[in-house]
Specification:
two-stranded parallel sheet, alpha+beta, 2 helices, two-stranded antiparallel sheet, flat, 76 residues
Amino acid sequence: VPVLLIYGAGDQRVPAAESARRIEATLRQAGNVDVTVHILQGADHTFRLPPGPGGWPVTVPGYPDVLLDWLARFAR
């Protein structure tokens, strides 16, 4: 089964690189060779950037594209 792992590099709850490494290794060890890992730079646990001058957080640019591009690989 294809797997997409998405993390925010600035996640304070889950260490992105370590979590991705462990999950990917476990999946591959179990025989799943279709694992995609994407770590969004600057993003937090909810894939948002810190609030800007207006005070509101924004979704990290590119996040929807990562999802849609990955899904498009399997849509037939």
